[in-house]
What we know:
The chain is α+β, with helices and mostly antiparallel strands. It is built from four helices and nine strands, in the order αββββββαββααβ. A hairpin with a 2-residue loop joins strand 5 (72-73) and strand 6 (76-77). The N and C termini lie far apart (64 Å).
Amino acid sequence: MSHHIEGALAALVCSFVISSPSVAQEPDSSRAAGVGTRVRIFAPDLRTDRYVGRIQSLDGAVVVLDTGEVRSVLGMSSGPVLVDQFRRVTIRLSTIESVEVSGGRTVGGATFRGALVGSLIGGLLMGLGNMPEVNPGARDFVRGVPPGLAIGAVVGAVVGWGVGGESWIPARLRR
């Protein structure tokens, strides 16, 4: 096996081992979401995707979410600051199927996906870039793939780590 292939495989394995996703957390019925908690609420009668925001108020009939919290990704804000009329959402408690509280920022899964996608893109680009203009062959392509896999995995893992994500823990609303 050539030194390039060995190095590329070692870098690829290291990036996957370092960025392995964490084990999913078990539901915690004792965790309660109250005023000020960042939550993700699923109410399929109102909307097919989940509401994400911070609880502004909570009473026996409705919960009011502030959905306009700006999250920074790679140093840039992820969305516009909305007018109060559109950023606050009132949801009837009877329509809520599930509630999850934020477990904070997580980077494991995003780093792993970034390394995987980066290695595939890097291997493809380096393989194509290694091919000569005259009489290209599969051997030329294959020779450029291993360093592309390694470089792409490292770059993709760094981007995935920067983007990150948010972990969610099943909970109940404090009433």
